[in-house]
Amino acid sequence: MNQLIKFIIERLSHFGEIPLCNGIASRAPHIGGFCFPLCYRCTFILIFFAICMVIFYRRQVRMPYMLIVICMIPMIVDGSLQTFFAVISTNLKRAITGGLFGIGLAAWMTRLFLYLDEDITSKMRSEKSG
């Protein structure tokens, strides 16, 4: 059996006990005895991404690319320090850096979608007039 499939089955067999993303129960929110399926970082990436994606797209927010990168850098630095230098991070720091990354990711995706919308709309207008 493929190693990836074995890994996925192993993680799913512990659903509610450990997060699916990193497998470390102490790094995930708990309610009662149930462990969230995602760690703090991934949970906050997902929450902030979903909320900001809706807000940014509806209001057609075009965050400057430099600000997008600034939002994403803290998580990249924190995650890299943990991975490569065994620096321990707190769950609060994981949540904050994940939230910032979710905002940056939503801003980047919004810029992409707005660009594609404008491109498709302009092509449709040129076909109608031509």
What does this structure look like?
69% of the residues lie in helices and 3% in strands. With 130 residues, it is mostly helical. The protein folds into two domains: 1-38, no CATH class; 40-129, no CATH class. Strands 1-2 form a two-stranded antiparallel ribbon. Helix 2 (40-58) runs parallel beside helix 4 and helix 3 packs antiparallel against helix 4 (91-129). It is elongated, with a radius of gyration of 19 Å. The model has no long low-confidence stretch (mean pLDDT 92).
Strand order of the largest sheet: 1-2
Q: How many domain modules?
A: 2
Instruction: Report strand %.
Output: under 5%
Number of strands: 2
- Give the SSE order as H and E letters: HEEHHH
Characterize the overall form.
elongated
Quaternary: single chain
Radius of gyration: 19 Å
| Mean pLDDT rating | 92
- Give the number of helices: 4
Terminal CA distance:
56 Å
Low-confidence stretches: none
What is the share of helical residues? 55-70%
Instruction: Characterize the main sheet.
Output: 2 strands, antiparallel
Structural category is mainly alpha
Based on the model shown, name its key terms.
130 residues; mainly alpha; transmembrane helix; DUF2085_TM; membrane
Outline the fold blueprint.
Layout (H helix, E strand, L loop, with lengths): L2 H11 L16 E2 L2 E2 L4 H19 L6 H21 L5 H39 L1
Antiparallel strand pairs: 1-2
